[in-house]
Design goal:
85 residues; mainly beta
Length: 85
């Protein structure tokens, strides 16, 4: 492609606009994951339900999501139930 706007493409839900050598990244997708013992988010899925299932099977009790590089707590499992934080 020629011209200023070279390409607009979709990568795992994130829109990436290329304009000459400058890349502007707009990250709108929530990526859900589990928090380990060091409170680091480990990416698991694009859905909260799948992340809760993974966490239950593998013994994690806190899940969250990230947008870009920022991570947030979403829910915690206490007494066998997921409580929204």
């Amino acid at each position: 492609m020629h011209g200023c706007k070279q390409a607009v493409r979709l990568e795992r839900g994130n829109l990436i606009y290329k304009r000459h050598k400058l890349k502007l990244i707009i990250m709108k997708t929530k990526i859900y994951g589990v928090f380990d013992s060091n409170d680091c988010l480990i990416d698991i899925s694009l859905s909260e339900t799948a992340t809760k299932r993974y966490a239950t099977i593998n013994g994690y009790d806190k899940i969250g999501y990230r947008i870009g590089y920022n991570a947030f707590y979403c829910a915690e499992k206490t007494n066998g139930k997921w409580l929204i934080l």
